[in-house]
Amino acid sequence: MHECLLLPDIFHRILDFVEFELPDEFYASYTEGWWKNATLARLARTCRAFQDSSLNVLWKRQYTLVLNFRPSRFRVHHLAPLVRTLPEDAWEETCIRRPSPYKQPDTVYYYLAIKRPLTSSDWHRFDYYAPRIQSLGYVDFEFADQEGSSWAFPNLAACQRPMDLATIDCLALHRRTRWLLPNLVRLRWTAHDYDYTEYLPLLLGPRLKTLAIGFGPGCLSLEPNAYKPGILCSILAALPHCCPNLTELEIYPRHDFSVIQAACDLSMVYQGLEGFCVNASACGAMHDYFVDNLSKKPHLRKVWLGLDADTVASLPSLWAANAYPFSSLSILAIEVPRLEVCTSFLKLLRHCRLFSIAVDFNHRPYATELHDFYDTLRQYCSRQTLHMCRLVQEYVHDCSDAECDDSVELSDAVHRVGMAELASALHFPHLRLFVLSVPLLGYFVDEDLMRMTDAWPGLIDFKLFGLWGSVLRSQATWKGVGYMVSRCRQMADIRLAFDTTSDNVDEAVRLPGFRPNHGLRFFDVLDSTLPSDPEHFARSLFAIAPRIIRVEAMGWEEDPEGPLQVDPYAFCEHLEIIMCKLRKMYMSDVYDLDEIGDDVVNHTKEWSAWA
After folding, report:
1. DSSP letters along 411-424, please?
2. What are the pLDDT digits (tens) for 268-320?
3. In which domain of life is the source organism classified (predicted)?
4. Is the dihedral angle over the CA atoms 39, 41, 47, 49 positive or is it negative?
5. Which CA distances in Å does 143 have to 140, 148, 176?
6. What distance in Å separates the CA atoms of residue 408 and residue 405, rounded to the nearest whole number?
7. How far apart are CA 579 and CA 188, in angstroms?
8. In Å, how far from its chain's centre is CA 263?
9. Quick check: 451 pLDDT over 80?
């Protein structure tokens, strides 16, 4: 039977769209944060019919336990407003202003503390608002395109509203209910919350469905041996009793073996798991029986797997009676020694409906391996569901092992990648993120970029060869890049090597249907061939994407061991200044003076190349 919405449900859905609005300042990208819409606060004061729904939306997402983002463009939420619902004589907030050595405003820190013991009558307003909080530790907008990376956003923030342990201890001691936030559904524990981990059970209620440990030992500013995995292990062991309805468990990035083992034991307890993204790479490849157990969970839609060739080879015998392993899988993150291991695993899945696939591998693939991977994906994955495809090799192994060929010199015969190897990926029309970061020889021309654009008009993030760049001098020009940027209207980030010295941007501008992309903010041209005059680059870029705020370029080197022909840092600095001047000249109606500092406006620095 069709589920009909009642009037309060419809009103709540409307408020979800009213909740956020774009900031008034020069907006950077869809990852940069959003303003909280003050309309909700006004609605809450309008009448009692609007009050509850408006307050629920205002309070449901709180960012984290103790912090706020330092940059002024962020308006995020924390538990300090909840503490301030206590009587005014029960708490105090001390403001400390630290001068900034730059043009930015001074940094202001707010220290919140409880002044006296709390009584039962002090909790009336606290208990009125606390049940409205449903999410803690998540950014307001975390798009599905950012799966696997959004856990790191809070770790990049500055702790601007710290609460000491005494304040948290006072709340824990005098609380009137078992849980501080009784209706909490999603909880991400960040690096800023680590010192308060012993109080984490106060938030583990029966309604909790998602628990994410969003930090690792490398994210913490701790003294040596200060990281204590035993606390996390004890909390994970108590989860079945505290949170019987848990459906998702995430642990990023690498943790101690004992923590990983405790998380794996939990997966055996929760039969209704919908997500199990536990980075177990520190423990080596997963055992085949464990992968088999995960594959039988009927509702599992999101999973992280660490596999090797032996594990994949043993799975067919275990899945002989399992016609549909991972039957509900939608988001797959997998770490393998070689790309061909992932290709073999995809064949074992038979037909799947993946929304996202992210593959991390350790050894350089051959061009044929890339072709086989995309062709296998085309054969076994639903054409209409795939939105994200990410292949990344983090580093090149320097080894003498006969099975390790990363130190072998690149060969045009086996390491050259072009459109022929990527053609099967064009089968998926809804791709929004395409990342291929491998140390291979890339050969792409304008026509190849145009084919990708026509196949993936909804691209948001496009990175071809990533940080590795292209050893070959790229044959793509401004025409192909302009076509891609113009047709992919939602493009927010692009990383691509091409010939920036070309003078054919007018060919892209004259193409039918061309419109400059006003949404693109970040442009990384990797090791592209750079022109001697940055103004030529700036005017070409302004013609296709006038609101670029950051350009990165390393410059293509004819002699890898010789001096750089162009200083990429000075080049990009001067390029950004020219872009700002062009915006001020041609876009004065939307140009915001806060976009650049006064020192850039008044004291233009001369650009110079390295000899």
Report:
1. -TTTSEE-HHHHGG
2. 999 899 999 998 877 778 888 999 999 999 999 999 999 999 999 999 888 87
3. Eukaryota
4. positive
5. 10, 11, 36
6. 5
7. 39
8. 23
9. yes
